[in-house]
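CCHC-type domain-containing protein: structure tokens wanted.
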Amino acid sequence: ECYKCGAQKMCYMNSVHPMETHDMAAVDETTGRVIGGEALDDEFNRRILPPTNPRKRGRPESNRRESQTQGVRVKRCSKCGEPGHYKNSCKNPRADFADDDEG
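Answer:
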């Protein structure tokens, strides 16, 4: 019931609107400069700039994109050194122990 259009209009019907005063500053639409206001000096009469975006917290995201011409990297086991699988699924004996048995 509260999400219907009529309920929203009733809720915001009597919202508070700002009152303009004689010492209120304004922005010139053509130049974008602040005009008027009692407390404003020429020092502060400058362009209104968009807010600066602060850096995000944590580790920054990587901007690296894989090249279309770059070949696919072959998976290589760190246990036996053969391509096509990882150490977790390796069924071969370790390469350094196999070399010791032969010699």
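Residues 23-51 form one domain. The CA atoms of residues 80 and 91 lie 9 Å apart.

Cheers.
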